[in-house]
Amino acid sequence: MPEQEDRGNPSTSAGAAGGSRDEGAGGAVDWEAERRRRRARFLRELAEARALRDRVQPRRAKAARLRHAMRMRTFRW
Hints:
The structure is a single chain. By secondary structure, the protein is mainly alpha-helical. It is built from 3 helices and no strands. The protein has helices at residues 2-21, 23-56, 58-74. It is elongated. The chain starts with a helix and ends with a helix.
């Protein structure tokens, strides 16, 4: 998993350096941008993990798709 660490470190170190310099002018904006970057990275990794799980356990993935389809069919707007 070294590529995950390498992928995460540049954005974290750049965000931390930028936040300390611009604390008075745009500290809240930098903090919010960093939070969005972390959230986007987390959601990408979560989707990747789900895709991997679906490939590794195709029967369970199919059952989950069918359950989801049934929920959507019985849902009332």
